[in-house]
Design brief:
- This protein has a two-stranded antiparallel sheet with strand order 1-2.
- It has helices at about 30-40, 60-65, and strands spanning about 1-5, 5-10.
- It is α+β, with helices and mostly antiparallel strands.
- The chain is built from two helices and two strands, in the order ββαα.
- It has one domain.
- The longest helix has 11 residues, at about 30-40.
- It comes from Enterobacter roggenkampii.
- This is Peptidoglycan endopeptidase.
Length: about 70
């Protein structure tokens, strides 16, 4: 947390970006992007990522692109 001009700003805890053990849905590729953007002051929503979504023809990154505030160029 941080106090600035009488306002309390709370931040979620973010583990180191390097050296993480991969765990799908917990410390996976999207979590890495989300945490990196959080450290830059940009919040991105978390969303459910079921196992093997990439093998079932889904593309969760593109499907949730708009919800994260990004767009495809």
């Amino acid at each position: 947390w941080l106090v600035c001009r009488g306002e309390i700003h709370k931040f979620r805890c973010v583990p180191h970006l390097t050296g993480r053990c991969f765990e799908h849905g917990v410390t996976d590729c999207y979590t890495l992007f989300r945490d990196a953007y959080h450290l830059a002051g940009i919040e991105m929503p978390d969303f459910h990522r079921g196992d093997d979504w990439w093998r079932h023809g889904q593309n969760l990154y593109l499907d949730n692109l708009e919800a994260t505030g990004l767009y495809q160029v």
